[in-house]
């Protein structure tokens, strides 16, 4: 059995995050230093990269994307390294160029990238780039679709992960089509409320992902990600057959959220929607219903525009045997020691600044926000879908 086939089976059947240490992945575009990569980017790019900035002091709530700003002074990649390469006592912001599609990056800066070594050939350009300075972070969330393969190229990133059943406070505000966020603020926990975070330590997993390492994030695992130094990584979400059913859930959530924002002010839209969703609001409910009906038909027929993969097709005993047979350093993560978890929380809580940054002004009432999140809660959406299939004459989703 080829190594790539073994890795594919390992990735699709793991129930815990995996770290592949110093994976022998030779991608031509990343030969040399981060400075070399940035220099090539600047030489070939047709326009300057649009960096997002986030105030370090904006910490009383998670650092949602809606609170980020565009740099008033346009920077090229090399200027970004000089200005944000090391944050010091005078630094006021972190900066990032992240969640970028392959075609947003010059050809020489992505040459050789592929995931066939992991057992997933022919993915085309279906991967993302993540470049950020120290403290650049993604608020805690889980991805609604896929198994996530993350290749750390330069720098170090901290990954704090929780299994799907962890009792985090889910929210769909801000709404993003492929992400479910939680309200817990792991960037800067409120010291007065830190005890409410401590019980989560019984289910907390953690790693500092180093250059050359690969992280496998299983389906629906919560994760809070933060750059510990200037960091560049590439990721790919493996599409799964079970995702076809969840596409219906996401259409239901989309309809609910869009019903709240349709006709509202830009201020309300910018609060409820993630920035990358602002241009995707349907003008007519019928457009959304047509997409929903197509998704139902696809689910019934099993059709998809790309290859989808099965999960959980081998037993955990066979999975462990497979793990031991691979001649690579593959480390399943374990629950982190509780004292280490408390140290991480306490260190991050020192960033919490209410006086320097008053709470964000909300354009909707707190009750309205609670209503949106309640209506879009995963278990509520799942029940709506079950009722739909019951009325359709099906005992359950297909």
UniProtKB/TrEMBL annotation:
Keywords noted in UniProt: Cytoplasm, Oxidoreductase
KW Cytoplasm (keyword) present: yes
Subcellular locations according to the entry: Cytoplasm
Entry's Gene Ontology cellular component terms: cytosol
SUPFAM superfamilies (UniProt xref): Clavaminate synthase-like
One of the GO biological process terms: circadian behavior
Major location (coarse): cytoplasm
InterPro entries recorded: Cupin_8, JmjC_dom
EC number from the UniProt entry: 1.14.11.-
A Pfam family assignment: Cupin_8
Gene3D superfamilies membership: Cupin
Oxidoreductase in keyword set: yes
Coiled coil start-end: none
Occurrences of domain JmjC (ranges): 94-253
SMART domains named in the record: JmjC
Single GO MF descriptor: 2-oxoglutarate-dependent dioxygenase activity
Function: May play a role in cellular stress response.
Protein name, entry field: HSPB1 associated protein 1
Gene, per the UniProt record: HSPBAP1
